[in-house]
Design a protein that fits this description.
63 residues, mainly alpha, 0% strand, elongated
Amino acid sequence: MADITLEQATERARQAEVICRILEHYPNPMDTYEIDAIVSLLGKLTGNVAAWLVEELALKENK
């Protein structure tokens, strides 16, 4: 169960979007450890949002 609120899901999605937009325009090559850290952070942010959305969809379908 994703124990987050709509507001938290929204904020995490925004944070993930900001990270992705920064990466689009980042001018320098990144080291593997930097990429690993970013991938881990994006996974944590978007994983909770995805779980929350799946739960909400299931609740709406069961009504």
